[in-house]
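@channel sequence for tomorrow's demo:
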Amino acid sequence: MLAEVRQLRQDLQTAAATIQRVQIVMFRLQVQGAALGAARQRLEMAQFSCNQVPQRRQMTMAQIERTEAHRRNTQNPEEQKTDEQIVLQLRSQIEAIAQQEQECQVQQAESATEFRNEEAKMNELQEQLERLDKALTGYGRK
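structure tokens (generated this afternoon):
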């Protein structure tokens, strides 16, 4: 009888410790969920931003074509000179857009890596919680 009481006491202490670990893991899951959500938001923002770059490049290229066509068709030297300056400005914008595209791709890759890392941490915590749940389930069967 005494051995049985000691075993029950030991099981209760072990179960209490496991419950505390479950609470800690659940808190960490909450914190990690917020971190994962923030990483997802950064990734989505980077993707959205990157998706805008080709449109800006196309619009700028179309402006260049229209301005060059206008320059070729006009007889007014002042308008031709103004059109040339506009085309130069637009071409520098194209270069800036190309730079933005490279930076955007880097940002998107970094955001995707960060998201995958946060997701892996979340999965690890979920697995840890499942192991603790199984341990607690085992105590209830004894």
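heads up for whoever presents: DSSP finds two helices and no strands in the chain.
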